[in-house]
Structure formats: structure tokens, C-alpha cells
Amino acid sequence: MRNRRLAAASSVLLLPVLVPASAAAAPTPTVVPCPQASMPASTPSRPSPPPAVAEDQVVGGAALATSGLVVPAGAAQPPEVTASSWLVADLDTGEVLGACGPHEYATPASVQKLLLTAALLPDLDPQQVVTVTKEDLDIEPGSSAVGLLVGGRYPVETLWLGLLLQSGNDAANVLARLGGGAEGRAGGVRAMNEFAEELGARQTHAVTPSGLDGPGQFTSAYDLALIARACFAEPAFQRYALTETHQIPDQEALGRKGFQIQNGNSLIDQYPGALGGKTGFTTLARHTYVGAAERAGRRLVVTLLGAEARPLRGWEQGAALLDWGFALPRETSVGRLVEPGELTAVPSATAPAAVPSAADARPAADNSLPEGLTGPGPLLVAAGVGVGIGGLAALIVRLARHPRREPGRRRRGQGHRRA
Q1: Which of 109, 132, 311, 339 has a CB 3.0–4.6 Å from the CB of 280, allowing a cystine?
Q2: Cα–Cα distance between 201 and 198 in angstroms, integer?
Q3: Among the options 84, 85, 110, 210, which is catalytic?
Q4: Where are the alpha helices (DSSP H) in 10-123?
Q5: Of 84, 85, 144, 167, which one is the catalytic site residue?
Q6: Are the C-beta atoms of 168 and 262 separated by less than 8 Å?
């Protein structure tokens, strides 16, 4: 399978995104306010974001460089939601249909588990059985957990289902430790940040594998769409995201019976054509949400951050935005989701060498973070890249950047159950 995918993608040419030297001198555009539902007066203050980087603001298109609303000309007004930022995009073509503050920093909460999934799911054998350690259960008291036991032995597939259905922070720690190889959990977080960079999610920085709050941990509605697109490209994730219940196995050696967990994403049984997604909440992040659905052969994804649960819950706000997106014509677009590896691609011999890429102007990563890592204008891309090329390009990038496999990992295409 790996060889077939590489062969199919071998002709893909991704050119670097070039930013005009005059971008810094461009006039400040008018900001259109986003439709906002009234929010409770008791909404707590949010963490202070890092300084904005101008080159990151135009990733995906100049129109996305706004803290306000961006929708196609003549489009209907989007629904009023409490989310501080959101984005609706086509999962297959990558076209962005509309957004509110798409590149504004926000705190992820448990939707960060999608980055853990995107980074590690293809490389972990779902049949491998893992023993839980005391350190794996080092999570915030009262936070969401599957209920794993120290010394308990669980298949990796059960851990993924516990992560995605029950939003288990304990499962996140185990998976990050396993995926981190010799570096353990910290290595798993580092892999998350490396993969975010490959995707072009340049406003995302993970500090914890679960999304539990940590200093310097941020993402954006645009970045979440890139991450979600990578997740939905994986057949195993598609199956897990639509799983309604799962039985956690008995732990006979510990004298404990198994139990059932349920999917906490109400979209899957309340929204026709739902493909799944992920919910999230912390006191700092408020409600966060990623959801996807299919209608008439068209697959859309919605991401939202910083929402309140009243008057609509997170998934209900996502559903309203999906309805709005499906009502737009298929050719509608205000920007696009960059392809994996596009912003980190090595320039070809014929590419202009004198013009710096967007990456050159970004500040170095803040290595002090715990468990962490280290002007407007059209984006230039290879002409003629069709639907589905992004997933193939992602394979090339991942295999090129991760040629060495740590113990506990498998090669892509081996050990997957049929979706």
C-alpha cells in the first residue's frame, strides 16, 4: 500500500508559498464584525496569545488575514454563534467557504487530541497491547478520563476509542508515551508539534497531548481544519469517529470488570450525514469543536473555538455552520487549506531563490515551554493539483521526515484493520 501511494504521488510538485516583500507596507483592511450571539456576562478571561506573525496570517489566502468575518460575495449571512473564531471548509478540495478570525490564536482544549491522532495514528499498531503506568494517570483531577488502571493492559485500538469517544486524558498520555518512543510522553508531544509544522498549522503549539491547558499552548480555527483534514484522511479515524459505544476489556489480573463507554459527540446521531469530530472544554478555552458531515457527495468540516454552551452547545453551533456551508455553491471559496508539506517544501532549482518564504520571518520556538518544542497576496501553488493530492503528498512528507521507527511503531499500511 505504501509503495502504491508513493508511486501515485511521485509526480506532485509543491512550490513554496511566496510572500511579496511589500506585504508589510500594505494598508490595514477593514474588519467586518462576525455575527455573534449574546454570551453570559461571567465569561472568564482567556490566556494572552503570542504576538501575531504577518506571514502566518495570509496562509491560505490574503482574504483570511482578518480578525473578523470573511465570506463569499453575495453569500447569506452566517448564523450567529458564540464562538470567538470559526471556519468552514471542504474536506476534499480544501476550499475555505467562510470564516471568522481564521488565524486568531485560541486555546484548544480537547480538540487538541485530533493533533495527537493525526500525528501518531498511522504509526501505532492497533493490535499492540500496552500496560498503563502510574505516570500515565497523571492528569488534572476531575478532568475527563476513560478509567484506565495502573497495571492494566489495553489494545492500542481501545486507547484510540477511549481518546476519541470519552475524551480520555489518561488515554492521551499512554498514546503519547508509546508514540514518543525512547523520549516517552515528551517525545509524543514533540511529534505532534513536528506534524503540525508539516501540515502548515503554524499557529499551533502543543504542550500537553490531551489539550489540558498549559502555558504557550494555542491553535487557530484554520489550523484545526488542517489537522481535521489529516484525521479524516485516515480510514481508522473515520471508523472510530462514528463508533457509538465501545467495551473496555476486563482486567482479570487486577480483579476488575470491563465497562462500556459512549461517544460524546452528539453530531453523529443528531445530524444527517455526520462523519464525526471532537468536542472540547476547559475553563480557559471554553467550548471548542470540530465536526464534519457529508451531503450530496460533498464533505465539509467546521472548526470553532472559544464558544459558550448557551444558547447553543458547541456541536449545535457547528451544525448550524455546516448547514450554512452546504447551502453555498460548490465553487464558493474565500481561500484554501494548504497541502501537507507545502510550507516546508524545499524550493526547486527553477524556483526564485531571492524571495524568502514565509518560514524565514517566523520567530524561533519557545523551548522553555513544558513538554514543548522547540503582505497579503495570492499564495502560489503548483498548477493542476487535483482533489485528493493532499493526502498523497502527506504520505511523501511523513515518510521522508520519519524514516526511523521507534520500538512500538509499525510501518504505514501494516496492521490496520479494515475500515
Answers
A1: 109
A2: 8
A3: 110
A4: 54-57, 113-120
A5: 167
A6: no
Q: How far is CA 315 from CA 113, 197, 231, in A?
A: 17, 27, 18
Residue 337, helix vs strand vs coil:
coil
113 flagged as catalytic: yes
Q: Which residue has the cell 520571518?
A: 361
Q: Quick check: 258 and 289 in contact, CB under 8 A?
A: no
Residue 196, C-alpha cell as written in the block: 503540525
Q: Which residue, chain included where needed, has cell 493526502? A: 391
Instruction: Kindly state the DSSP code that residue 171 receives in the 8-state scheme.
Output: H
42's CB contacts (< 8 A; 6+ apart) are none
Could you give the 3-state DSSP secondary structure of residue 70?
Answer: strand
Amino acid at 258: G
Query: Distance between CA atoms of 277 and 321, rounded to whole angstroms?
Result: 14
**Residue 282: beta bridge partners?**
286
Q: Each residue of 1-29: pLDDT tens digit? A: 434 333 444 433 333 443 444 444 455 56
Distance (Å, rounded) from C-alpha 278 to C-alpha 241? 8
Nearest alpha-carbon partner for 419 in 229, 213, 243: 243
Predicted pLDDT at 42: 56
Please state the length of the chain: 419
From the list 113, 144, 220, 357, the catalytic residue is: 113
Q: Are 343 and 58 in contact (CB under 8 A)?
A: no
257 flagged as catalytic? no
Give yes or no: 167 in active site.
Answer: yes
